[in-house]
Design a protein that fits this description.
The protein has helices at residues 64-75, 111-119, 128-141, 160-163, 169-175, 184-198, 251-260, 264-273, 276-281, 286-294, 298-322, 332-337, 339-346, 358-362, 387-401; strands at 2-8, 13-19, 24-32, 40-45, 55-58, 91-96, 107-108, 146-150, 207-212, 216-222, 225-229, 327-331, 369-370, 379-382. The protein has 402 residues and is an alpha/beta fold. The chain folds into two domains: 2-150, Nucleotidyltransferase, domain 5 (2-Layer Sandwich), CATH 3.30.420; 200-387, Nucleotidyltransferase, domain 5. The strands form two sheets. It has an eight-stranded mixed sheet with strand order 5-4-3-2-1-6-8-7, with helices on both faces. Strand 13 (369-370) and strand 14 (379-382) form a beta hairpin. Helix 11 crosses helix 13 (339-346). The longest helix has 25 residues, at 298-322. The protein binds adenosine-5'-diphosphate. Adenosine-5'-diphosphate (ADP) is lined by residues 213-215, 242, 285-287, 332-334, 337-338.
Length: 402
């Protein structure tokens, strides 16, 4: 069984083609800057972990459909491809962003489902339309079934008191305004891997999972189910991120509009793309932040401090939500690779039963591992996320059950 996973963003998409028998990634790639004349396609063959790009094309990809059609021809290309015929693809798994309350489980893609998803585009205008476009074109190009796996699914178990906002009730009933959460496929995957690592049943662990990448979110997991998460109606809320501000006083929006005359769209762009680490320091990549801190850059120092502080506050509040925590889990670009951030986040947490073994924290590994001091009440784990594999597994499970 070979599953093609497609992850459509607003102006790009990533793909991975996975052999499910041995979980090897046969090829993978990225099409970027769709809709501009500086578009590019990069394609790698196994082992896809290497930096070696076997094929690169720089040209305009007018639409996602254009890019996907090109990738399909690459998959069967005599030199760069990995299969002879597209019929060798057993299934296609799509990353969906916003499933809202309609899609709380991985779902077979069919016309009725696409129409419902289209209705949800109002809640995710940047993400759902390209995802739908991807699903439509894959259904046309490939004879195999497609399954959608949504970022919001894992968070659908949150209780009402966690997902509702304290706003007039009809904003929820009429417009669906509530906390949905994102990065759910990653939170679920690392929560399950953490349970396996700890030797506990997947429905018997209490965890705080920290997905710290360019976008970051934190989830509270009780008995394997999400009970709260830091992102909300959109991915803007929660902790300080690469370019997003995270939680701020909602009145700032109004105040800014009045003082500067900026439009709602301009303010939205500022909060999403020009804030967070970037807004504070001019840099959104954590490696650049560390390099600048070493040179004494005060803006970078403050950005790092605020990033860690916002995460520490969230961990503390989720500790209170859960009462008992088996493990604190770090994942994604910063969570997996940045021992400096992990050490700063966990500093002086002994009274919560959390303390790092600094030597283990400093070691590098692509495997799931514990970085906690022995004997602490709460284990601290680093678990590499793998959203594409999680989507491929969920896709196979839907098809097996069908
Ligand atoms: P996203 O998928 O949200 O775009 P990633 O999960 O790839 O983001 O994470 C990107 C972040 O991870 C960047 O801030 C980057 O600096 C950071 N990162 C990646 N590798 C390292 C590393 N070795 N040390 C510190 N930070 C790293």
């Amino acid at each position: 069984m070979k599953v093609l996973v497609i992850n459509c963003g607003s102006s790009s998409f990533k793909y991975q083609f996975i052999n499910m028998e041995n979980r090897q990634v046969l090829c993978c790639g990225l099409v970027e800057r769709i809709g501009t004349d500086t578009g590019s396609l990069t394609h790698k063959k196994a082992p896809c972990t290497s930096d070696e790009i076997v094929f690169k094309e720089e040209r305009e990809f007018a639409t996602h459909t254009d890019g996907i059609t090109r990738v399909m021809s690459l998959l069967t290309d005599a030199e760069y491809g990995v299969i002879k015929d597209l019929s060798e693809i057993s299934a296609c798994g799509h990353r969906g962003v916003m499933g809202a309350e309609k899609f709380t489980k991985p779902t077979l893609v069919e016309p009725g489902m696409l129409a419902t998803l289209d209705d949800l585009s109002v809640l995710a205008p940047l993400h759902n339309p390209p995802t739908i476009q991807g699903m439509r074109i894959m259904s046309e190009l490939l004879p195999c079934p497609s399954v959608a796996v949504f970022d919001t699914e894992f968070h659908s178990t949150m209780p009402e008191h966690a997902y509702k906002y304290a706003l007039p009730n009809d904003l929820y009933t009429k417009y669906g305004i509530r906390r949905y959460g994102f990065h759910g496929t990653s939170h679920r995957y690392v929560a399950e891997q953490a349970a396996d690592f700890l030797g506990k049943p997947r429905d018997g662990v209490n965890l705080i999972t920290c997905h710290l990448g360019n976008g970051s979110s934190i989830s509270a997991v009780r008995d394997g189910k999400c009970v709260d998460t830091s992102m909300g109606l959109t991915p803007l809320s929660g902790v300080v991120m690469g370019t997003r501000c995270g939680d701020i006083d909602p009145a700032i929006s109004n105040y800014l509009a009045e003082r500067t005359g900026k439009t709602v769209a301009e303010i939205d762009k500022m909060f999403n793309s020009e804030s967070g680490l970037k807004g504070l320091s001019g840099m959104n990549d954590m490696r650049d932040i560390h390099a600048a801190r070493e040179k004494g850059d005060q803006g970078a120092e403050l950005a790092f401090e605020m990033f860690c502080y916002s995460i520490r506050k969230t961990i503390g509040s989720y500790y209170a939500v859960l009462g008992r925590v088996d493990a604190l889990v770090f994942t994604a670009g910063i969570g997996e690779n940045d021992d400096i951030s992990r050490a700063a986040i966990c500093k002086d947490f002994e009274s919560l039963g959390i303390a790092l073994d600094l030597e283990k924290n400093g070691q590098r590994s692509g495997e799931a591992r514990s970085i906690s001091k022995p004997g602490m009440a709460v284990d601290v784990l680093v678990i590499p996320t793998n959203e594409e594999l999680a989507i491929a597994i969920a896709t196979m499970n839907v098809l097996k059950a069908a």
